[in-house]
Amino acid sequence: AYETMFSLDDDTLEAGGEAILESRGDLGKLLFTASAGLGHATEKLNALEAEADALHRKQAQGTEIALLKKRLADLKSRRDEIDTLASTYEGLESEHREAAQQYESIVNERAVLVARLEAIAQFERARPMLADIRRKIVQLEALPQTPSPTRTWTGSIAELIDDDASLRTRLAGIVGEVERLTASIAFTEVDELILSVSERVRNLAESRVRFSSAGFDLPTRNVQLQILNNTVATCLSALGRTSERDPGKLLLPAATVGTLRTMIEQRSGIATAVRAAQDEVAAALDALQSARERVGEDRAVPESVRAKLGSALSKARASSHLAEIKAAREEEDAAGIRWEELRAELGPWAGDASALASMTVPSAGQIASWKTAATDLAKARSVLAERLAECESNSAKLAARLDAFRASSDVADDEAAAASRRTRDAAWETHRAALTIDTADDFALALARDDGVGLGRLANASHLAELRSTTRALAEASADLSRLRQQHAQMGLDLEAKTAEVRRVGGQLLGHLVEPSLERLIERLEDRVEVRADALAAWGQIELSRKKAERAAEAGEEIRLELIRALTSVGIAPAPEDTLEAAMALAELFLERQRKLDAEYAEAQRTVNGREEDLAVRRRALAMAERREEEWLATIGETLKGTWLENGVSASGLSTVLEQLSNLAKSVQERDALQLRIDKMEDDRTGFLSEVRSIAADVGEKTTDEEAEQLAVRIAERLDRAARARDTKAALLADLKRLQGERNVLDNETSIHERRKNEVLIAFGVDTLTDVAQRDELLRERDRLRTSVAELEDRVAAELSLEKFEQARPVLEETDFESLAIEKAQGEQRLQQLDGALRQQLIRQTRAADKIDDIGGDSAVARLDAERRTIVLEIEETATRYIELKLGIMSAGNALRAYRERHRSGMMARASEAFTLITQGQYTGLTTQPVRGGEVLIAMQRDGQSKVADALSKGARFQLYLALRLAGYYEFAQFRQAVPFVADDIMETFDHIRSEEVFRLFGEMAGIGQVIYLTHHKHLCEIAKAVVPEATIHPLE
After folding, report:
1. How far is it between the farthest Cα atoms of the chain?
2. SS3 at position 179
3. What is the mean pLDDT of the chain?
4. How many helices (H) and strands (E) in the chain?
5. How far apart are CA 431 and CA 436, in angstroms?
6. Rg (CA), the chain
7. What angle, 0 to 180 degrees and rounded to 10, lies between the N-to-C axes of helices 10-21 and 954-975?
8. What architecture is domain 2-36+903-1027?
9. How far is CA 902 from CA 829, 898, 949, in A?
10. Which residues pair with 937 in a beta bridge?
11. Confidence at residue 34, expressed as pLDDT on a 0 to 100 scale
12. Is the Cβ–Cβ distance between 554 and 328 less than 8 Å?
């Protein structure tokens, strides 16, 4: 949304502007809230307008009033038809009564037959049930007749059998497991003696590790000790004290060593300072001599001689003629590009500026008049086309309807009836004049034909009336169609005439352009008129830029001649053809050389003074360095006083002595530490051997000549075996205790099971549970068969509608089912015959009733009259509603238009003001106009005409889009933080004056937010700086 609204180039300027005009996006909604929130009111008016059109619309056949009128005509035709059919009413009543009586008789006979067939079906359904009862009674006789025992136990027989087997299996398993655990416990032995010293044995493991480590490390440590002893001897030899028994006596105190090291570090700096001071004194003497020699050189040209040349060069530098020439040429190039672009848009025209200026073009008023006329013609042509299509469709429908009537009926129309009547009258006149047998026969034949035609027309009176109505309507539709076609043809001639007028006036601009419509042709002409104006403005800019370049070139030539004269006065003679830039370079080179000579002389004088001062400073520094060296030597002697080095070391060898003393101290310290560690390792080995032998003696472990480590390992393995035996025995005792508890629980369950088992065996009178299961299954099968027999007996009694099976059984046994089958087949055949007769009588009765209803009896005319009066009242009410709606819509529309004029939004007001300024008053403002489904933006012209935004030229539309963005930016900045407004060369089609107005508006916008304009046109930067002086220009390379 930001890119299309406030970050603009040519594409986003157009796309976002169209979105605003279509009420899309935030700016579109803001713009059309200018109607003070009346969008819903407009929609309501449109809905009311649609409601009014649904009530009545001129020449429309689907409106409510048109449908009511059609119903009124249908009622009249039906009343006329009833008058002609009343004579047949009595015959239809007699036929209806006869059909009803026969229908009732057939229904009664059918009911009796259906009841008999149902009784036969009951006997057939009961017959297989009786056979099933007999079969199951035979099965019951083979089963035991003893009564079923009373079930006082819980669970099934199968569960008792499963529980019995499960308990036996579990008992056998527990007994076997107890015996196995008892044997294992007796077999397991625990070494209590080794377990009593378990803690000492575990501690022995760590001592064994140290014993082994010391055995590996002692040879290496002894070698390292010998190396350190040799290092100490080497240091003593380097110090010249090999006979010293206690090397520690040779070491100096730490304070003394620190002081000596500090003094040694200072020694190099002091010596370096003395040498540097001596070198600097020598260098200062040489520099002073060189500076004194340079002071005696000659000076440069005097200042008075150079003043004239400096003034001419400053004037040349201050001149802006080069920039003016460049700017003028850039403006000329930009205007030339613009001229060629606009000239290309005017193609195929290819003349020059003078031809373009002398070209005759229509005025804005004439173009507005043409557009109004074109719009009126287009609207009238569209309406006429709709009416013509509607009339053609209506005429085709009427013709098809008339053909259908004639094809479906043999009724003679009015023309055929009139011809038949004329034939009969002519035969009568002939017979009356001749009175012969032949003329009598001819007259009788003509009379019979005429009577036949009359009777046919009388019998089909309704068809005849509808045929007459359709014929009349078809004639009227044909007349209307002919009139509309003439109007459509005349309108086409008017359109061609107007098009020819437009092409005649704008022929030079239009050329041979072909457009699909007059409106589009006028728009193209208007666009080309605006392009012509912009092209002439671009050509004027080209001529102005050329004059600016010529004036700037003349000023540059005057400055060049003045500078050449000044160079000649100082002894430099440039060539006459040299440019101003070459002359300025010579002058700058000459003046720069003179400035360097002056600077060198002053610098030489200052150098002599500086060298003398520097020599004095260097001599004082040399004396100070020599004094510091003497102080250092005295401090060294004082520090070594009272030590064994007091008289035995020089200043240069002091550093080496200190280094050897440091190595000696380090070696002595490492030797003593290593000796202490070796002693500790030997103590660990002695303690481990003593502990191992003591533990072996306590636990009765034999000691042999083997090493102590192997003895310790053997004792540890014995402890592990004893611990595992102890844990195993404890686990076995726990498992034995658990199994004893399970055995107690199993004994309780077995006791309960045996009581239930004995109870079941006693109840069934058998010895085993298997016999109980077999006996129980036989008794269950017997009970199931008895229940099934009882259910079948009840169903047989119910089928035969008797109270007991004993009553139904003899009836079924005595029944002849073969006779019943024959009777059933005959009854079903008769039932089909009765159903066919019943349908025929019902159809006969229904047809007679429908014909009676069509005639309607004596009250049909009254009903039709009442319905007619009701429709007339509905037509009056609908017409009243239509008039009320139309008057209300007109009043509300006028009120809304007045309200919109009084309540225009801030954005619309700002957009109108900005559009007026940018177009230099060509358009005086903006307004809105409601249309179906929304509103459109209207631009008001200076001459009072108006244009829809879509009808504006491309340049005017772009100016409108920019004005809407400027107004929208103010609206957004009022209620939220302002965002940067960025525009990328959107004014390429704007002339100089319009560009100034746009930059002035941008300057006002910069008061509430940041405005950034990107361009590659130099003249736009100059316009922006002139219109908005506080604007900042950033050149982007």
Report:
1. 199
2. helix
3. 77
4. 30, 6
5. 7
6. 67
7. 70
8. 3-Layer(aba) Sandwich (3.40)
9. 92, 7, 21
10. 928
11. 45
12. no
Burial of 834 (0-12, 13-18, 19+ CB in 10 A): middle
- The whole-angstrom separation of Cα 591 and Cα 7 is 52
The first and second tokens of residue 847, run together, are 């047809």
Quick one: three-class SS letters along 327-355?
HHHHHHHHHHHHHHHHHHHCCCCCCCHHH
User: Model confidence at 35, in pLDDT bands (50, 70, 90)?
Assistant: very low
Q: What is the DSSP letter of 153?
A: S
Domain parsing of the chain, residue ranges: 2-36+903-1027, 83-150+776-844, 157-194+708-766, 198-251+648-698, 254-301+580-639
How many residues are listed for the chain in this entry?
1037
pTM assigned to the model = 0.28
Which residues neighbour 915 within 8 Å (Cβ) at sequence distance 6 or greater?
923, 925, 926, 939, 959, 960, 963
**Residue 364 forms beta bridges with which residues?**
none
- What one-letter code names the amino acid at 289? Q
Burial of 583 (0-12, 13-18, 19+ CB in 10 A): buried
The residues near 501 (Cβ < 8 Å, ≥ 6 apart) are: 370
Q: Which amino acid is at 934?
A: G
Buried residues in 251-283 as b, exposed as e (16+ CB within 10 A): ebeeebbebbeebeeebeebeebbeebeebbee
Q: Phi-psi region for residue 704, left (φ > 0), alpha (ψ -120 to 50) or beta?
A: beta
- Average of per-residue pLDDT across 934-943: 80
CA–CA gap between residue 375 and residue 378 (Å, rounded): 5
Q: How many CB atoms are closer than 10 A to CB 726?
A: 15
Q: What is the pLDDT of residue 903?
A: 46
Q: Could you read off the pLDDT of 284-297 as tens digits, one per residue?
A: 787 777 766 666 55
Residue with tokens 């129309």: 413
Are the CB atoms for 618 and 280 separated by under 8 Å?
Answer: yes
Burial of 712 (0-12, 13-18, 19+ CB in 10 A): buried
